[in-house]
Write a structure and sequence with these properties.
Rossmann fold, alpha/beta, 3 domains, six-stranded parallel sheet, 21 helices, globular, about 40% helix
């Protein structure tokens, strides 16, 4: 393809078109920076948000669900600084993202220019790669490099900035070449054989999947391996969605998120197979929760993740999907025989715990308990429902299998270890745009909802049939719980003036429901599902009991205080 005369922002649009981008999330400044060229030269939708932080939250959800970079656009100064939290979360969570910004003019740099910012220094710690374009002929190369970097190896965020004074320039622009697909590396055969030998000999193997397993697309392989080994499948928050949580091998999450049955099975493990996780602090309760008699086999595409915190018996560098495929082949080569008795014991333990928790959750209480709300949503919405996770003590209940079970592969969008409040509530809009045929539900505390409620109008404008379930205890509950445990006065953690979330939702074109009676929970959830199917976003404000937490959550906090 021959060169064509164009400006830098048209060149950016050409890159986005070639990369298959369909949505850009952001706020416009002067429309000559990107927005005009998007409208004039493409069918790409510009999703107008109310805040740059919201734009990057939606791009995060898009990247997690599609595996392709979510694209966000912003403007100089505060527009750029507002991206930082979301970019950091994406890089920590292995979510591909390309952030593009209109930067301060080059010829005034260092002179006190309007909205001047050293974006290079700001962005380096929170992205995989950043570039400020100085020559518009480099735009195709920079954009190609951005997309390749965002999705290669361990995915993450990249940042591209075009100074404002480049917008009116034109040149014979080099033709755009599509960025290569992410490459995958196979594991070392000898290391892999050692790992498989340990797994074959295990009395009670446990598979723990992190975000790397999801990024790799290893769901089918993990399910096959779990079945062959009769191994429990557990996850970090980032790995949730790798295996259907109503499956016979499901045992929930690890670390802070253990439930009774999952922790009992995990503690008795003699081989722990960790796939695509760095085993960060919350997933291990600061590395304190390790099965005392277990050997560790760790597989990760990033060799720096191996042995980072827990010492491995065998460390394997490689793409998770290819590594697990090779493990399955090595099991055949070594002549592994499946243990049906262990498989039956595991399935029975999983099934019995689900039944017990379901019966417990269905018992009505006043004030309403969060577990009742979770069970209701899970039962009524059912399959093909994306769980958009938030961050806080009340909504942490949705992390605790089996009170909420992610029923289908890929149907979960968690935050990474930064746990930025509000990103999940806003990201639900991006999730619905990325997967319009799916239902989307977000459980969110009243604290995080107040940080993000401005974007309900965006959901209404876009006809995003999303349901937010606000678990309302009129406080930053997790922070307040620490005051309760230490018998300190409850100061500066509760809200003296509570928000009428249902009224705010209606004012922004959504449907709002307030629930105070446990007998009305099912009816509210059914109404939300019906309205979502018509394209109406719904907010259910549920007034819940204060400081009603999972038993393991309570135990962990007591242990920290006691020690």
């Amino acid at each position: 393809m021959s060169n064509k005369k164009m400006g830098p922002w048209q060149a950016v649009v050409e890159a986005l078109k070639h990369e298959g981008v369909t949505h850009v999330f952001g706020l416009p400044g002067n429309p000559k920076h990107l927005v005009n060229d998007l409208m004039d030269h493409s069918d790409i939708a510009f999703v107008l948000m109310r805040d740059e932080k919201s734009a990057v939250a939606c791009a995060y959800a898009w990247g997690r669900l599609t595996g392709q970079p979510g694209v966000v656009f912003s403007n100089p100064g505060p527009g750029i600084t507002n991206l930082v939290t979301g970019l950091l979360e994406a890089t920590c969570g292995s979510v591909p993202m390309v952030a593009i910004a209109n930067g301060v003019v080059q010829h005034q740099e260092g002179m006190g220019a309007f909205q001047e910012l050293d974006s290079r220094t700001l962005m380096r710690p929170v992205t995989k790669w950043m570039e400020r374009v100085a020559d518009i002929r480099r735009v195709p190369w920079v954009m190609r490099r951005a997309f390749a970097t965002a999705r290669s190896g361990r995915p993450g965020a990249v940042y591209v900035e075009l100074p404002s004074d480049l917008a009116d320039q034109q040149c014979d622009m080099p033709a755009y070449a599509v960025a290569p697909a992410a490459s995958r590396c196979r594991p070392d055969a000898e290391r892999l054989a050692e790992a498989v030998t340990l797994l074959r000999q295990a009395r009670q193997p446990v598979i723990v999947c992190g975000a790397g397993a999801v990024v790799s697309g290893a769901a089918d392989e993990v399910a096959q391996l779990a079945d062959r080994l009769a191994a429990a499948v557990m996850t970090t928050p980032g790995g949730r969605g790798i295996y259907p949580e109503d499956g016979p091998n499901a045992m929930g999450q690890i670390g802070l998120y253990f439930t009774q049955a999952g922790k009992a099975w995990y503690d008795d493990a003699d081989v722990l197979l960790v796939l695509g996780s760095r085993l960060e602090a919350f997933s291990t309760n600061s590395w304190s929760l390790y099965p005392k008699n277990a050997q560790l086999v760790q597989v990760d595409v990033d060799p720096m993740a191996l042995d980072m915190n827990w010492r491995t018996a065998v460390g394997v560098t490689g793409d998770v999907r290819l590594s697990v495929r090779d493990m399955l082949a090595e099991l055949d080569r070594q002549g592994h025989a499946r243990d049906p008795a262990r498989a039956d014991r595991l399935a029975g333990a999983s099934r019995a715990y689900v039944q017990a928790c379901t019966a417990e959750a269905r018992e009505p209480h006043t004030p309403i308990r969060t577990r009742q709300v979770l069970e209701s949503v899970n039962r009524i919405f059912g399959h093909d429902t994306i769980l958009m996770k938030e961050n806080g003590a009340a909504d942490l209940w949705c992390y605790y299998w089996p009170y909420y079970r992610v029923l289908d592969v890929g149907d979960c969008v968690p935050m990474a270890e930064q746990t930025a409040m509000g990103m999940g509530a806003i990201g639900a809009i991006g999730a619905k745009l990325a997967r319009p045929h799916k239902q989307v539900v977000c459980f969110v505390g009243d604290g995080a909802m107040q940080m993000s409620i401005v974007e309900l109008a965006t959901a209404s404008e876009r006809r995003c049939g999303v349901t937010w379930v606000v678990l309302n205890n009129q406080a930053f509950g997790w922070v307040q719980y620490n005051q309760v445990l230490t018998q300190r006065p409850l100061r500066n953690t509760g809200f003296e003036v509570g928000s009428d979330f249902a009224a705010i939702a209606r004012a922004q074109g959504c449907h709002g429901i307030t629930v105070t009676d446990p007998a009305m929970v099912d009816a509210a959830v059914q109404e939300a599902q019906r309205l979502n199917q018509e394209g109406t976003p719904v907010l259910i404000d549920v007034r819940i009991a204060k400081h009603d937490y999972s038993d393991h959550f309570v135990a962990v906090h007591h242990e920290r205080i006691d020690h």
